[in-house]
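Page header: ASSEMBLY MODEL / two components / 460 residues total.
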Amino acid sequence: MSPLDALVFDAYGTLFDVHSVISKCEQLFPGKGTALSQLWRSKQLEYTWLRSLMGRYADFDQVTADGLSHACRALGLACTAQTLAELKQAYQTLHLFDDALAALRALSAMHPRPRLAILSNGTPEMLNAVVKHNQLDMVLDHVLSADAVGIFKPDPRVYQLAADRLRMAPDRIGFVSGNGWDAAGAKVFGFTVFWVNRANAPVEELGVAPDHTLSSLHELPGLLADGGVS
Amino acid sequence: MSPLDALVFDAYGTLFDVHSVISKCEQLFPGKGTALSQLWRSKQLEYTWLRSLMGRYADFDQVTADGLSHACRALGLACTAQTLAELKQAYQTLHLFDDALAALRALSAMHPRPRLAILSNGTPEMLNAVVKHNQLDMVLDHVLSADAVGIFKPDPRVYQLAADRLRMAPDRIGFVSGNGWDAAGAKVFGFTVFWVNRANAPVEELGVAPDHTLSSLHELPGLLADGGVS
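Prediction written out in full:
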C-alpha cells in the first residue's frame, strides 16, 4: 500500500494552542487567567456538542463568545462587552505549538508530498485569520471549516467534508488531532488517526483507539517516512 | 388554558444527587473524593454527548463505567476492577435531594393530579434500582429511559419519547431538570421547562432560556397550584 495521500490537521489544540490566551486572561483578571482559559475552552467544546445534538447550530465564533461569557459569569468575573471582544479577538492570534511548524515544513519537503489541510470547527474567518497570523497559508493546501456542513465534530458529516473536498477515500487520509475525542470521532469515521497526546493524558474511553499516539508532532514526519504508516 | 397534564423529571442531578457518591469515593481515595466525583460526572456527560454525535451508542451503565475509569486514570488513582464495580454500584443507591420527596408528595396530592414521570439517560435497570431504593415507585407513573431510543439527551428523540409514552402534546408537559443543558434541550423540543438551579449557576448560553428557574423543588408545587403555570 502506498503512503498516505493527505494529512488533515485539527486546528485548536493541535496546531494552535488555545491556552495561549492565558496571558491576556491573566492581564485582564490577575490570578484568574488559567482558570478562565480552562473553563472557557471547556464550555466552548460543551456548547459545540450540545448545539449539534439539539439541532441548534450557531457558528464557532458565536459558540466561542458564549463559552467565554458563561465562563466569566461562573467565575464571578465582570466582563464588559469590550473585554469579551478583546478576549475573543485573541483567538485570531493564537500561537502555534512549538512542534507544529517544524512538522509541517518536514511534511512539505517529503517526496511524494502529501496534501496538507486543516479541518476545524472554526469559521472560515477565524481559521483564515489564525492561519495567516502564523504564516501557515504557504504550506496548507486546504483550510476546511465545519461551518460548511452546519454541525460540529465529532458528527461524521464534518469528517466527510475532508474526504469530499480532497476527493480521497478516508483510509488514504491521515487525521491528526491533539483532542482525544476528535481522534476518536475521526477513527469511527474511517481516517488513519494520529493522536498527539502532548499532556500524556489517558485515552478517552469511547470504544475506539487511535491508530498512532504521538507525544508531539515532531514524531509525525519520521513515522510517515519510515513507511511505518501506509 | 388548563394546568399542565404531566410533570416529567430528569433523574441524575435533579431528583438524585450524583455527588452522593463522594463519601464512597472519599473512603476509597482519601482526600480525592470530591475531585473524583466531579471528574467522573463530567466525563460521563461528555461521553454521552460524544457517543451520540459519533453514532456509537453504548448504554448509560457502560458510559458511567467508562467515565469513572477515565477519571481514575486522569487523577492517577489505582482503580481495581472491584473498586470500579463498587463505585458504579453506588449509582443504584444515590440519595434523593432533600427537596425532591416533599415536592413529589405535594404534586401527588394535587387535584387534578398531574401524571408524574422520570425521563433519564439511565438504563431501565439503573433507574428502577435507584427509584426503588428511594421508594419513589409509589408516586411515579412512568420511568422512561433514553435506552429505548438508543441516543442520549439533548437529542430531541429522547424528549419525544416522553410525549409519545404519555400521549400528550409537548407543551402540556412540564419538564423539570437540574441540568441547565438538559433544560435547554427540553425547551428547544417544546416542553414547558423548569430549571432547578440549586447552585445559583449562570444560565447555559445555548440560545434558549427555561420557562421557569427555581432555586429548589420546594417552589414547584406552589408555582403550579397558583395557576402561574399553564
